[in-house]
Amino acid sequence: MSGEKFEVRAKCVINATGPFTDNIRLMDDPTVKPICQPSSGVHVVLPSYYSPESMGLLDPATSDGRVIFFLPWQGQTIAGTTDKPCKVTHDPSPTEDDIQFILKEIRSYLSPEVHVRRGDVLSAWAGIRPLVLDLSKKPKAGKTESIARNHIISVSNSGLVTIAGGKWTTYREMAEQTVDECIKSRKGAEEKLNAKYEFSQTDHVLLEGASGWTPIMYIRLVQDFGLDPEVAKHLASDYGDRAFSVAKLAALTGKRSPIVGRRLHEEFPYIEAEVRYAVLKEYACTAVDVIARRLRLAFLHVQASQECLPRIVDIMAEELKWDNKRKKEEIDNAIEFLNTQMGGAVNKESKEQRSTMSFTKKEMDEYIAKFTNIDRDHKGYITIVDLKRALKASGEATVSQEQLHEMLNEVDINKNGQIELGEYLELMSGLKTGKVTGSRLAKAVDREYEKTLSVDRSGGGL
């Protein structure tokens, strides 16, 4: 944090640096061959209605051979993923192409009534998979047989223990085997570890917060502290029996119910006390630590994270004695993080492309009249069916659902399939400026408009 450098001595060094594995190995031995093949994987978060609460879907064979899934996660839906070679960086970022690939793939798994919209992407991020070569197999050009399907552990001539590859679901096994290898490798060394045990002893050790947890523990939080039930469930799920320590830090709300637990954002169960707990007990030092590495709100909703930042920074400033200059730096750094690494920038760019209107007053009036003409039943909106009818009238009798999605890709359609006037105007503006794919819709709308004689020109009657 301070930039100060100092020397640390150890009897055994474990290299567990993910995609940076080879960087450390080369520091130990400049002659070693790289074993890490970094691959970028992008995930997006969508609203909860994209998946049932307790059911997900995974397809290991997509149109181009990649894996696609969408699962309920933290009250939202997480979908992914991409898989392509990348450079190792501290700041991996999702691209618009990656996001569009995921959206395109999941469309084929959902009912035609569900419109997968670009505007539904609440956050997007890229991670680097540290795929590693199995040193026991000979690499073959264009083949993946030499890629380790699990993890590998190796010990260099100097005694550096490297753990590489693996996945989230096996992290405890990876740690156990790495510690075992570390103890084993130092048995004949000049500086022995003098380990108390021959093997790792954590196989049956519960994670922090697990010892007192039960599925209905949240009820005690509601009864003992007066927390909102949704907040109590969140605290019990995320902190286990440590939730009581968080609740003790919660401030009064000033309401009859809930009594304590001020929310950081009305749409999420995170409370202000969690920020204090993150600083006091979980070593959070920056605003990014809180929104991304403690609360995980940045992964769920970029815009909501940004809206919470001022209050989060104020609370951290109280605990860490920050001045106004430091508070501003924290907010600026967090916004930069949200924009570059959590999809904020690509979301904003896509939204601006959808919402930039370039009409004269005369053109605006004409497009409003066209919308009114298509909306023959005066519902205040048009539907996919209305669009198909307009396209058929323009001479294109068959239009696939996919083609309609392409036309409407830049417009935020309501989840019930209704296109309101504002969204229609955004689409027409995009067509006019060339920012929306395809011009068939504009031609169809013009033809529908020309077919009907206006009341003004007919003198008010037939």
Task: Write a structural description.
With 462 residues, this protein is of the alpha+beta class. The chain has three domains: 14-185, 2-Layer Sandwich (D-Amino Acid Oxidase, Chain A, domain 2), CATH 3.30.9; 217-344, Helicase, Ruva Protein, domain 3, CATH 1.10.8; 356-458, Orthogonal Bundle (Recoverin, domain 1). It is 42% helix and 11% strand. The protein has helices at residues 21-28, 96-107, 171-185, 217-225, 229-239, 243-248, 272-281, 287-294, 297-300, 302-320, 324-341, 344-355, 361-374, 384-393, 401-407, 421-433, 440-451, 455-458, and strands spanning 14-15, 36-46, 57-59, 68-73, 76-80, 84-85, 123-132, 151-155, 161-165, 381-382, 419-420. Strands 2, 3, 4, 5, 6 and 7 form a six-stranded antiparallel beta sheet that branches. Helix 7 packs across helix 10 (302-320) and helix 10 runs antiparallel to helix 11. The radius of gyration is 28 Å and the shape is globular. Residues 436-440 and 452-462 have low confidence and may be disordered.
What percentage of residues falls in helices of 4 or more residues? 40-55%
Name of the top-level CATH class of the largest domain: Alpha Beta
Oligomeric composition of the shown chains: single chain
Mean pLDDT: 83
Overall, the morphology is: globular
- H and E string: EHEEEEEHEEEHHHHHHHHHHHEHHEHHH
Name given to the CATH architecture of the largest domain: 2-Layer Sandwich
- Spans of at least 5 consecutive residues with low confidence: 436-440, 452-462
- Tally the beta strands: 11
Instruction: Return the structural class.
Output: alpha+beta
Quote the CATH topology of the largest domain: D-Amino Acid Oxidase, Chain A, domain 2
Strand content: 5-15%
How many separate domains make up the residues? Answer: 3
Number of helices: 18
**Nearest-angstrom radius of gyration?**
28 Å
Major sheet size, sense and barrel closure: 6 strands, antiparallel
Q: What's the N-to-C terminus distance?
A: 79 Å
Cofactor: FAD
InterPro entries: DAO_C, DAO_C_sf, EF-hand-dom_pair, EF_Hand_1_Ca_BS, EF_hand_dom, FAD-dep_OxRdtase, FAD/NAD-bd_sf, G3P_DH_FAD-dep
Protein name: Glycerol-3-phosphate dehydrogenase, mitochondrial
Family: Belongs to the FAD-dependent glycerol-3-phosphate dehydrogenase family.
